[in-house]
Structures are given as C-alpha cells and as structure tokens.
Amino acid sequence: MKSRLTCNETLALTAERTGTPAYIYDLSILRQQLAAFRDAFEVPRFSLLFATMANPSPQILDLLAIEQGGACVNSILHLDLSLAAGISTDKIQFTASGLSVDQMRRLITAGIFVNLDSRRQVSQWLTLGGGPFGVRLNAGALIEKPGDRLGFDQAEFDALRNDVSGSLLAGLHVYVGTNFLDARDMFPTLRSFFRLAAGLPHLQYVNIGGGVGVDYNNVGSGFDINAFGSEVSQLHRQLSPETMLFFEPGRGLAASSGVFLSRVTDIKRLQGTTFVACDASIAIFPRPLHHPESLHRVRALRDGGDQTDVVVVGRTTFSRDILARCKLPMNVEIGDLLAFENAGAYCNSMASHFLGQPAPADFYFPIE
To answer: How far is residue 209's CA from residue 175's CA, in Å, rounded to a whole number?
Structure first.
C-alpha cells in the first residue's frame, strides 16, 4: 500500500484543508511499524512500548491501545493520557529520575511498574509502601565507557542487591542510546545487560529502550529490525522464558508516520547563499535546532526540474531558526509547499511558545 504521505497531490489537498504549518500523520504507517517490530522478535512473553514523549497525541495513544501496545512514560501527564487512551497498566512502564513523593504515591496507587534511578529513590519508594520495582542501569557503565547521567553503575547496583530482597527487585531497564542506524552498535551494551540479568533469578521483566534510528537523509539502508530482533531473542534465552521482554524502540517506531508541511513565504540571495523562508520556525518544528547534524529530508510538493542548494529558514529574526540545508527546485516560488519527512516523533511534542509562533495544525489520515 502506497503511503499517503508520499503523494504530493494528497498532501497539497490536505494543506488546503488544514492550512500551514501543519503536521500530517498516516496512522496506517504506524500500524505497519507496530506489526513489523513485533514480528522481529521470537520471545515467549513480549510487549512493544511506545515512548510517549516522542508524540503523546490522543490519536496515536488510542491506536496503541487498540493494537495492544504499551507505553513508556516519564511523567504523570503522559501516564494520565495513556490510561485515558485505554492502555492497560500491565503494559505501562514508568521510567524517570528524581521522582517526588507525590509522584511515587500516585504510581503506587495506580499499580504502575516503575524503574527507579538511584538507591535513595528505591529507599523512598519502599518507605512509602511501594512493592516490587525495577531499576535503570547506566548504559555506559555496562561497557565501562562514559555514559549519561541516568541509572545505576555496577557498584551502586551491587550495593542495592545487598539492601533489598531479590523478590522486590522485579525488573531491569537499560536505555542503550539514541538513533542507532546499525543494530550491531547496540549489542555490546545489550550483551552485558543480559549477562547481568541472567544472574537475577527472580526477575519478572527486562526492559530495553531506545536506539532504533531514522535515516533522515535517506542515504543508507536503514536499521535492520529483523537482525536486531533475532539477536535480542537469542540473548533473552539466557533468562527464564517467563521473563517479560519490554522493548521501546525510540523514534524508529513513529517517525515515518508523519510529515511537517510549511509554505514558502520569501526567497532571497545573500552572500552567495539562497535562503528560502517559510511560515514555520524551530519553535514549532524544533528537531532541526536540537539535531542540526541530521536534518530532515525536504521536498517541494510542486515539481520544479533542476535543483539547487538552499537554506530553509523560519519566518523569525532568530539567527538559529534554520530548518534545513537541502536542495530545492531552482524555480521555487512563494506559496510553494514544502514537506519535511520523518516528522512523526520528537517534533511536535517538542514545540514551545518561543518566538511567538502560532501552533501548527494536526491532521490524521485514518487506517485504511
């Protein structure tokens, strides 16, 4: 089935209906991605999670609930949205750092499994009457390399095991990293993680998060989810078949289900560079600001023949309001529509009030 997001005429007609700037989603693509990711694993007990901070829209969460998917959440707001969508509590994993007492009480009352970030958080959890819990392991510490600020290192984890009974330590979580385009780069961390998990006979679950990258510039072969799933399934065989495997694949699950549309508002030549301004900004399409090293592929919806290098910018005076460095038709005109691909994750969810730009429209193509 051809994606409606690749049909320029369909997108142009949609833009006439919604106005611009706008995020356009195709829920059929997300459904296909859910099936492809699930089919890659051969694990007796398996649950696919979606990182709600990537895109907490009700339409996406509703589809997850219908498809029996789960949610990886790190805020009470996203927990409430997930529950409202009908995602069952046994398919929700709450992973965060620095939880407050009030947050812990809410999670305990709701019966949500939580992956805690420090020994002090564990102590507070148990003091409040919390039951079995999981802990987050620091990915860098697993392979003795610098990591991020989150999770336990080996020494702290060993100390925790001496503090609590094995039956209370219900799960292990690791976030391997972000935007891997080659699955092989993830396996050193995952092999170490599963070796450690194999030494904990009372584990109810393991949770591996993040990693599946998006080839934003369409220059490679893409992430091999089948090879990844096969290797992880093999690693899981070190554990009891009753141990649940939660997998949260990161942006790779939802990015391709959305595009961002904007309309050209100005074109100028300055010191040898062609600048194409559009009716958007990094305030409402913020990923290019945060990740200028992997900008989105951009295409004009009107065919224009030969192309030339341009810099696409927002309609503000902020010097870093740069949305893309790409090629567009040499005859691009004011009023032309531009489509920024792979905008289904970590785009609209990161929008802000900075620069005073109007909120973009949202439109969802239903499942075909």
So the answer is: 4
Q: Which residues pair with 23 in a beta bridge?
A: 260, 362
Cβ within 8 Å of residue 264, ≥6 positions away? 276, 277, 278, 332, 333, 334, 335, 336, 337, 338
Q: How far apart are CA 256 and CA 262, in angstroms?
A: 17
Q: Which of 227, 254, 281 is the last residue of a domain?
A: 254
pTM (two decimals): 0.94
Category of 277 on φ-ψ map: left (φ > 0), alpha (ψ -120 to 50) or beta: beta
- What does the alpha-carbon distance between residue 348 and residue 281 come to, in Å, rounded to a whole number? 12
Residues 52 and 103 in one domain: yes
- CB-count exposure of residue 121 (10 Å: 0-12, 13-18, 19+): buried
Could you tell me if 364 and 29 are in contact, meaning their C-beta atoms sit under 8 angstroms apart? no
Nearest to 237 by CA among 188, 288, 182, 195: 195
Q: What single-letter amino acid sits at 146? A: P
Q: Per the structure block, which two tokens stand in for 236?
A: 């899981």
Q: Is the pLDDT of residue 149 over 80?
A: yes
The pLDDT value given to residue 165 = 81
Domain of 341, CATH number, reads: 2.40.37.10
CB 133 within 8 A of CB 106: no
- DSSP state letter for 118: S
Most confident of 200-204, 223-227, 265-269: 265-269
